[in-house]
Amino acid sequence: MTNTAQYETVALDDGGDALVILDQTKLPNEVVFLRLTRTEDICRAIRTLQVRGAPAIGVAAACGLYLAAKSIDAPSRDAFFERFKAAKDALAASRPTAVNLFWALDRMERVASAHGDLPPARVKALLREEATRIMEEDAAVCRAIGEHGLGLLRDGDGILTHCNAGYLATTKYGTALAPVHIGLEKGYRFRVFVDETRPLLQGARLTAFELLSAGAETTLICDNMASQVMKNGWVQAVLVGCDRLAANGDACNKIGTSGVAILAKHYGIPFYVCLPTSTIDAEIATGDGIPIERRAPEEVTELWYEKRMAPAGVSVYNPAFDVTDHSLITGIVTERGVLYPPYGESVRRAARGEGGALK
Ligand code: MRU
Question: pLDDT by residue (tens digit) across 121-138?
Fold first, then answer.
């Protein structure tokens, strides 16, 4: 089995002509790379989770906006910016919850606006540089998250994780899985319990694939088995990712995460949320303000089953994310260090990139 670390999940091709993604809807059975150039195809890839995970979505959107700008042949500066803005709006509409999408698009727009008086060819070159920077920074940031997270763990620990916040969700290492990958590099042995993560099975299909291929001791469990596994004493820490962190430390992540946090509290197990500071949305005061994506009922009633398994006509509630209350979070692991409660001021300072807030 090829180590997932050898694949590039999301990248611009060498010539800067296309976005190349590892199609995550085909994993673990097929390793297929897609080469995308058109904005609508990149939007579809994000919407259908061919590329997924908050940081990877941000990188894909940044590359998508560069590729859109590259293809614009406009007679005037205003016409260029009109089409640039339309592409940005389309990419921003692809998924609502992960704030990295909007963060990356805003970064790209700031570069274009700041250099609007330069010839279009020069603006396009600067946009390519910015997209590349966003991608390269993500790898460095995830490495740092991994180093800080590893400091919270001991050799031999049992770790439980939900969804996929690993290599496949970022440019490199992941967020929640970065401490595991870096620990493996350094000779640690962890036993990782992977929630299958209904309904889209990011845990079973992606995390299990990624961790097995990296040589980690990996055990797949159904979501409803987490309590028993914790009760057995097999879990010393829970590590999860995040799609948007509110200013008070409420953490929005894959549906099911908040239940795991409640269980961890019950069993006295530390619960860590791992994220780049680009995932902080300091404009949103609490988790109640975070837009939660609702997805198609068929993901619950049909997908993965040979035959539809629920009666036709039943109503289905299919939120893709939930919010874990900040009171359940032991620590927030960022590239700049670990935040501990109380969160409000330290989260705001981390979002502003200020030093001294982190322990
Ligand atoms: O719907 P998905 O698969 O994009 O959801 C992904 C998650 O919830 C991840 O935990 C989160 O984006 C963090 S990825 C480093």
Answer: 999 999 999 999 999 999
